[in-house]
Amino acid sequence: MKKSRVLFISQEITPYLEESELSKVGRILPQGIQELGKEIRTFMPKFGCINERRNQLHEVIRLSGMNLIINDTDHPLIIKVGSIQPARMQVYFIDSEDFFNRKGVVNCNETGKFFEDNDERAIFFARGVLETVKKLGWVPDIIHCHGWMTSLVPLYIKTSYGKDPIFANSKVVYSIYDNEFDKNLDNNFAEKALMDGITPDDVADFKKTSFVDINKAAMNISDAVIKASEKIHPDLENHFNNINKPKLNYHDFDSFVQAHSDFYDEILESANVLQD
Question: Top-level CATH class of 5-270?
């Protein structure tokens, strides 16, 4: 049986960002899955509050240089990489002077204001990861998305990128967290997310842009869903309980690595991906 490959796309990873439930999972889960014998690749945004010198990040020239068009504007894609030495784990960073060269994750550190272009930042991040994985030529069996900023990845995998041999057989898992924001993304989020191979019907679920709505949309189009926080928004809890697809309930840090690994195996075995 071949070694399965898991692509982790995480909104936050510690120690690059302050510790939170999401950033701890982003740090601990890939290491644990790697130690259980699976191959991994890990991506996150290169937020401006991440200290490049302290974390020894450097640009990967061969992966950088592409332009992504969002809302009729070209945005250069920059790829950087760092290593978490104790975990023997590399982290790829999606960077952009237009979107990530500022102090803050989703809110400005100085004013506390929600960034008005968070919708375009999410689009750029999702597409940037998938374009970079294509350049790497690394074929993931599982694509595991963490945090609402990854919510468009399932859409792209099931539409435009699903035609690419790199992603044709990938199964998308989406984790739901208690990391709510109280603003709506831009009303034109769904329209801006359009690209070749995506129709307006494909993005219908993303026309509502609250935290709850975009998480529901991501859950609807994913192959499987995970409740990653013990307590999540009641509407998302209800949606999770009623959705008809493979799902994994909340596990604490004592058991969540093995539970996730087993869940990945179940998904792949049911899809006949793991073969001799």
Answer: alpha beta
> How many of the other CB atoms lie within 10 Å of CB of 32?
18
User: Cis omega (within 30 of 0) on the bond before 76?
Assistant: no
CB-count exposure of residue 26 (10 Å: 0-12, 13-18, 19+)? buried
Pairing verdict, β 58-59 and 67-70: unpaired
Rg (CA), the chain: 17
Q: What is the pTM of this model?
A: 0.96
> 169-198 burial string, b = 16+ CB within 10 Å, else e?
ebbbbbbbbebeeeebbbeebbebbbeeeb
Residues 6+ apart with CB under 8 A from 109: 49, 103
DSSP state of 184: P
> Tell me, what DSSP letter sits at residue 161?
G
> Which of 184, 192, 187, 100 has the alpha carbon at shortest distance from 155?
192
Between CA 258 and CA 165 the distance in angstroms is: 29
User: pLDDT digit string (tens) for 176-225?
Assistant: 999 999 899 999 999 999 999 999 999 999 999 999 999 999 999 999 99
The pair of structure tokens assigned to 107 is: 């809110």
Q: How far apart are CA 126 and CA 150, in angstroms?
A: 6
